[in-house]
Task: structure prediction
Amino acid sequence: MKSNARELTISILKFNPHNSNSRPTMVDYKIKERPGMSLFLALSTIREKLDHDLAFDFVCRAGICGSCGMLVNGKPQLACKTQTKDYKNGKITLMPMPAFEIIKDLSVDTGKWMNGMSKRVGSWIHTSESTDIGKVERRIDPEVAYDTFELDRCIECGICVASCATKIMRPDFVGAVGLNRVVRFSIDPYDERTDSDFYEVIGDDNGIFGCMSLMGCEDHCPKDIPLQHKIAYMRRKMVDQRNT
Amino acid sequence: MKIHYCDALVIGGGLAGLRSAVAANNKGLNVTVISMVPVKRSHSAAAQGGMQASLGNSKMSQGDNEDLHFADTVKGSDWGCDQEVARMFVNTAPKAIRELASWGVPWTRIKEGARTAIINAEKTTIVEEPDVNGLIHSRDFGGTKKWRTCYSADATGHSMLFGVANEALKRDIEIQDRKEAISLIHKDDQCYGAVVRDLITGELSAYVAKGTMIATGGYGRIYRTTTNAVICEGIGHALALETGKVPLGNMEAVQFHPTPIVPSGILLTEGCRGDGGVLRDKDGHRFMPDYEPEKKELASRDVVARRMMEHIKKGKGVGDGKESYVWLDISILGREHIERNLRDVQDIAITFNGIDPADEGKAGWMPVHPAQHYSMGGIRTDRTGQTRLNGLFSAGEAACWDLHGFNRLGGNSVSEAVVSGMIIGNYFADHCLSNDINISTNYVQEAIRMQDLELDRILTLEGPEDIFEIKARMQDIMDNKVGVFRNGIELKEAVTELEELYLKTNDITVKAKNKIHNDELTEAYRVPKMLKIALCVAKGARDRTESRGAHFREDYEKRDDENWLSRTLAYWRLESDTLPDLEYEPLDITTMELPPGFRGYGKKGNILEHPDSEIRQKEVDTIRNKMVREGKDRIEIQEAIMPYELQREYKALNYRVGDRT
Ligand SMILES: Cc1cc2nc3c(=O)[nH]c(=O)nc-3n(C[C@H](O)[C@H](O)[C@H](O)COP(=O)(O)OP(=O)(O)OC[C@H]3O[C@@H](n4cnc5c(N)ncnc54)[C@H](O)[C@@H]3O)c2cc1C
Ligand code: SF4
Ligand code: FES
Result:
């Protein structure tokens, strides 16, 4: 098995915006493939053996934390969940996700963007009630709790933003992740905001009316969140708001 | 050189750090949280299975209360924990879960009526009463009397972390990510903050605060096979240790989880077994009932991990030698259950192993083998979370508050992270409110300069060694000699070899000389810190000549209460030291609510008893019997046996649906 392992060629866009001498350059790295190799293992090997200066982000390496989105042969996806064996000719090109500030090479600042989005849509429970935490909790319909959880599963990886055509035309577009977040809170019984409150936040072309339903987000979302369906649902509600 | 001032500095933005920050913000303090990664990516997000709290809502958890949760936790810890801390914890956990619900954590809720569950590999029908419909549900986890683990499907940690992080966003708490604390600023016996490295620009700056909290999580990456994230390197522990004043407690108490998937070491949650999954050997035989007739797959983690290894050693594993593993079978739970409640597990198995665990029969079995998972030990604190440096606190997995002793129960850790954020967070905030600091700018500037000089020093080293290789060797030593089964000979070798490696970190060359975006340099300052942690673990394990909880010695198979009912304290007193100095802090049986005894699982007759245990047990029984006769309730009785202090809002009664109040 070891002797006839394939050689992989991984081409990576290197660029350091903090260094005025740096120009975006593609660099090829050749490594031996190992059984069950993910891009996490491949990139770690490259950084350890071939290029200590290469920047990328991994935390959980299990598809849970949303750190490692990048363009793999042009497709935005989680690198830690990408297996090298799926690339038949052994050639893989890696680029940073567009739409986010580049930190260096494959590392982009999704965290900062997501914080901005979260603050913009008010990504927390808005309520006038105070909870007595010694008392039995409020009852929530199990199906409603499950529906909320379904949308709460978003890991803020930014892949939907990186695969969104609207985002390219409208830099301030809140993204599928932002619209999904609004739907998540709108169905959460703990949140008291009304449709008209949400209309204030997303009732424009940088929000719900910006989406052109091209489905890039849903096709690539690693958590399989039904983004199109939820965005359509929200759009209908927001249209009602606009008409009132 | 920049100096950032705040009232309260929190290092680490996982559940413990963020919840502590909220506590400090509640009291009107100006808080700064720093984190290596965007906080929502902290390792807390990876917790799948759930959070223990004795709500007692669902059928299988009816009758649950703080007393049962307390007893399970103490037994789980193999009597290594601080029982007063355990009491503080179990009384606050139900409040934590209810608070999180109000912050938007979508806990799985109970649906009234009948449902099928798999219990002991058989289909069973459970009927939920109408009066619990819509309340928070719970599942079964190892080592617990009741089904106590609350969950949101199998992304519990993620939902909890987002809930707490969103709360911090709402309060506009200052959070700075991609910042790494690399040393503490301290003088005499007072902590003043930390020197912090910006991981984007490489710039060093100082964060000065009235109180500093270390909530940096675990140190699993000193091992090669671990379920931990790549950032769990124990740097926070090293910060405290390197002050020379703050000891690390019980570092040899390392948990190995039974069911990480082979070979990546990615965790498959205990929820798999909690929901009814079973372990099978190469013949497809379900072997756990042979070893643990009562608790079977759901004995505590240390016991299940050892039984698996024992079975593999008998030649019953799949594959050969070190690569040998057993199967985890959840296919018996049915596709519908898996796709709703264990979806992340399914996703991991499909992505990383090409196995769909919902496929019937052998096709769906997943290969598993124990791997490092959790650090019970950590920065030793008192019950308020303060360390031996005034103004330095610690909470969460990083700390040895000592809730877990020598083994922690599944679901008790995210629970501890949040609960300690509430309790310790409050004590921490009180400290920041009532203490002022006075430190010269010169002293702070000097602290930054020292770190800068240290990086310069590393860059000038010109030795033959390679830092990546040193790290890899450390991880192999830890895996091979400080693992599930330990013995004196190998542990002695491990200590010697780790010490040699530590010395070799001064014999390296860092090829590129730039101070930022230089992974080799980053490793060159982190690996010596990791080696210090590894040495605390290995030396602690070498010297502890007994077996307790997760620490198992083949040459000393018994738990030895007579000689070892104590907590190990590891100090790194001088910078020039190459080994930690160990001291022991005895645990006092005469004040325990639950004196040492048999855990109810694991091998019987494996205890060398302490004479005090029997005496104390009699005392406790006498008090209890008398008070029961007098008609006192369980809370009064508890208070009489082992009084403990806790903030009033957390000490308050927890109402349950069964109370009918
Ligand atoms: C795969 C997996 C599954 C688990 N499942 C469960 C479960 O089901 N139930 C359960 O109870 N427990 C579970 N656990 C354990 C539990 O998740 C952790 O113990 C707990 O979340 C730790 O929380 P924390 O806040 O202490 O640390 P973490 O969440 O690890 O946060 C640490 C923080 O510190 C920061 N940091 C670290 N070092 C530095 C530094 N030097 N400078 C600045 N910042 C730093 C990090 O960026 C991060 O923000 C699981 C653990 C793993 C590995
Ligand atoms: S919606 Fe999906 S693609 Fe978008 S950030 Fe969330 S998880 Fe990622
Ligand atoms: S590293 Fe966490 S999702 Fe890839």
Summary: Residues A 58-61, 63-68, 78, 80 surround FE2/S2 (inorganic) cluster (ligand 3) (CB under 6 Å).
